[in-house]
Write a structure and sequence with these properties.
The protein has 471 residues and is mainly α. It has a single domain, classed as Up-down Bundle (Growth Hormone, Chain: A), CATH 1.20.1250.20. The chain has 19 helices and five strands. The strands form two sheets. The chain has a three-stranded mixed β-sheet with strand order 1-2-3. A two-stranded antiparallel sheet has the order 4-5. Strand 1 and strand 2 form a beta hairpin. It is globular.
Length: 471
């Protein structure tokens, strides 16, 4: 138990001319009163360590959420070898269903932090991950499991996708505006890494000592102990903030804000691409280069699909950091331009490229999408501060009403962006079934990236310059 838990904490005296740091105190249930990260004296004395502690456990819980969310993307590749006989359409539904449910759950998850507290909801949302993990372990152990049951269990993995919205909405309250890009980027990257770790670890675990029979149930069971650690860690080490209350009026105001929908479109292009391609990448490799679907190292199988999600996740905080420095709008527009170019190259070379060229192009696409994730998300609190009339929206967060609207918007935009995890597999599945290849589906994405590039440039780059604000 920390000193903060034991007694009220008072920030040290601030230098003459500076605003005095408000005192912090803790109510039962680890509710912190008097939190104000924009007050430099409080932030540098007691605020930063508290925020860092909450960020660490938030990252861990969100990481496991992404693991569970993406389990089916790698498990489906091994279903035929385990005796399941699903067709291509059914496989793509198993890949995309967790994203559809996870994206939808992000809407209610956004409002759980204001209603229950960040710590309290992290405990609950982590506990919910036990259901899809155990469910997957039970149903993939029997090849006679009906497709409807498999699809329902895959839908339950959407619990993991919902975690992102509540986690990001919670962390935005802990950090000052000038550090939100880096903090939100780290939180998101730590979560996004779960997709890569799932795609790396699951093929290894299910083939260790398996002989001719895959141990598919281990794909679910291995995460149960870590989920229990996250539940206990959140209970003992995280905090609730008393001022983090998004009232209904603030939520309605966020929905009425036109920029909520513009930013949602941009995030659908960046994060939607990341999570959509992360889900479908193992299947793309299996279809285009079946000999590289799994690389065998002794008795262990390794899928290189994890490299895409890994590189995209690691790039995300740097997108936030670059946005802190140069502005989110400029970085987001640049990301869309590069994503359009890379996707066009993939279309042109797909029939002729080697596996290693294919892998390099997609890893590059993941990296740029990751940078775009960080920069687009950094734009959200900036744009809401700008709309509230803040003098320097890039460095100040505006009044508390603006912060609450921004927090609600973070979750709503995260929810809409996550639908890319459903749309991209479905679009590529439609392209494959109707044309025999993936080029048509990829060309639709190029058009979308170019559209989003124009929107970013006109609305935020040019609009920000007209108002003298770097967005």
């Amino acid at each position: 138990m920390t000193a903060l838990d034991a007694q009220p904490v008072t920030s040290p005296p601030s230098p003459p001319g500076d605003a005095a740091a408000p005192a912090l105190s803790v109510r039962p249930g680890r509710w912190i009163e008097g939190w104000n990260p924009e007050n430099d004296a409080q932030w540098e004395s007691v605020g930063r360590p508290i925020a860092a502690r909450n960020l660490r456990w938030s990252i861990f819980a969100e990481f496991l959420g992404f693991v569970v969310w993406q389990l089916w993307s790698i498990v489906v590749v091994s279903l035929p070898a385990a005796g399941f006989t699903f067709d291509t359409s059914q496989i793509f539904w198993l890949i995309s269903m967790p994203s559809l449910v996870g994206a939808t759950l992000r809407f209610p998850y956004t409002f759980m932090v204001p209603r229950l507290g960040g710590r309290n909801w992290t405990i609950i949302s982590a506990a919910l991950l036990l259901i899809p993990s155990i469910g997957l372990a039970l149903c993939v152990g029997n090849p006679d499991t009906p497709f409807g049951v498999m699809l329902f269990v895959a839908a339950l993995a959407g619990f993991g996708g919902g975690n992102f919205a509540s986690s990001m909405a919670n962390i935005t309250y802990f950090y000052p505006q000038r550090e939100k890009g880096w903090a939100l980027g780290l939180n998101a990257a730590g979560g996004n890494l779960g997709a890569a770790v799932a795609q790396l670890v699951v093929p290894v675990v299910i083939t260790i000592g398996a002989g001719v029979t895959l141990q598919l149930p281990l794909a679910g069971w291995i995460w149960v102990p870590l989920i229990l650690v996250a539940i206990v860690g959140a209970a003992l080490r995280m905090d609730n903030l008393s001022h983090a209350r998004a009232d209904f009026a603030a939520s309605v105001a966020a929905f009425r804000e036109p920029h909520l929908w513009v930013l949602s479109l941009l995030y659908l292009g960046t994060f939607g691409s990341f999570i959509g391609f992360a889900g479908v990448f193992p299947k793309l490799i299996a279809d285009q280069f079946p000999e590289y679907s799994q690389i065998h190292l002794g008795s262990v199988a390794l899928s290189l699909a994890f490299l895409g999600a890994l590189c995209g996740s690691l790039a995300r905080p740097f997108g936030g950091r670059l946005a802190d420095r140069f502005g989110g709008a400029v970085m987001t527009m640049s990301a869309f331009a590069v994503m359009a170019v890379i996707t066009t190259v993939v279309i042109l070379v797909l029939p002729h490229v080697s596996f290693w060229g294919f892998l390099a192009l997609f890893v590059a696409l993941f990296i740029v999408a990751g940078i775009g994730n960080g920069s687009t998300y950094r734009m959200i609190p900036t744009v809401f501060a700008w709309r509230s009339g803040a003098a320097d929206a890039h460095r100040t967060s505006g009044d508390m009403g603006s912060q609450r609207k921004a927090s609600a918007a973070l979750g709503i935009i995260a929810a809409i962006g996550a639908y890319g995890g459903f749309l991209i597999p479905q679009a590529l599945g439609l392209s494959k079934s109707s044309t025999g290849g993936y080029e048509a589906g990829l060309s639709w994405f190029v058009v979308a990236y170019l559209l989003m590039l124009v929107v970013t440039g006109v609305v935020y780059v040019r609009g920000g310059r007209r108002s003298g604000t770097r967005l």
